[in-house]
Amino acid sequence: MTIASVLISPEQLSSLMAAEKVVVIDTRDADTYAAGHLPGAVNLREIFTFLATSTAEGLTALKSTFAEHFGAIGLSGLETAVFYEDSLNSGYGQSCRGYYLLTWLGYPKIKVLNGGFSAWKALGLPVSTEKPAPVATTFPADLAGADVMLTKDDVAAALNTDIKLLDVRDIDEWTGESSSPYGKDFAPRKGRLPGAKWIEWYRFMKPSAQGPVFKSPLEVQAECATAGISTDDTVYLYCFKGARASNTFLALKQAGFTDVRMYFGSWNEWSRDDSLPIETDAPILKTKMPALALAA
């Protein structure tokens, strides 16, 4: 499967659901899911809520937890997994977090509904309130996972190197006014990783008649160019807990960035270790004004 084929439109998903084995995964909260969802979709809110650390124990727990969850909803390796959220600008990248986790685990067939549930509804496609009973299976344990997961040690080693560290959090987190989307003081420290560049995750999406969708590869490349990042760079992503950065991970991969990895523990982990450096100064770009030529 090519990266470009990860994004799927509502029309394409409707056809796919009728043609082959698909497990559609709704990442929204339980009440929102119960009010209406794609027919046959299963609810797996833990895709968004699970907090992980990048220690060996933390990554082992992350892998075992989601192998169990994905097996319980029927992913054996034969089915196509399709993730969706409400809309791409309101779910903090939660559907893409599912894509990232399955990519890390090495699952072969993964898609994300471009535009989310809002785009599905906008086209008048069917909505259900029936809760399906998935047939549990065993998630494959012999998959070759992808090298996309970074630990805090990996990130610490990348500081002051040519690796492009990209912060995609909301602006109040980048400036240090807030520590997280869960409250200004949810995490113990405010700021950003030293030397990080910043592109707010919203910038990788654009309006459409069905709601926000991902920008085209050229548009994503143009956004990255504003921060001095090109498709040939090694890019390390982070946000607060690996959701918004998952949205960016997908955007960059479908735009042709070949060496993109993510620090899944992100600011939630980094900020809690006082031995790790942060920047807290106001992020003001200092430029030297060119000298003005005096008229003769």
In which order are the strands of the major sheet placed?
1-5-4-2-3
Beta-strand portion reads: 5-15%
The tally of helices reads: 11
CATH architecture of the largest domain: 3-Layer(aba) Sandwich
Shape type: globular
Per the CATH scheme, the topology name of the largest domain is Oxidized Rhodanese, domain 1
How would you sum up the major sheet? Answer: 5 strands, parallel
Q: Which structural class do the helices and strands define?
A: alpha/beta
Task: Write down the CATH class of the largest domain.
Answer: Alpha Beta
Number of domains: 2
Low-confidence stretches: 286-296
What gap, in angstroms, lies between the N and C termini? 65 Å
Spatial extent as radius of gyration? 20 Å
Q: Helix proportion of residues, in percent?
A: 25-40%
Q: Tell me the number of strands.
A: 12
What features would you describe in this structure?
This protein is of the alpha/beta class. The protein has two domains: 3-122, Rhodanese-like domain (Oxidized Rhodanese, domain 1, 3-Layer(aba) Sandwich), CATH 3.40.250; 149-270, Rhodanese-like domain (Oxidized Rhodanese, domain 1), CATH 3.40.250. The protein has eleven helices and twelve strands. Strand 2 (22-26), helix 2 and strand 3 form a beta-alpha-beta unit. The protein is globular, with a radius of gyration of 20 Å. The relative contact order is 0.16. The model is unreliable at 286-296 (pLDDT under 50).
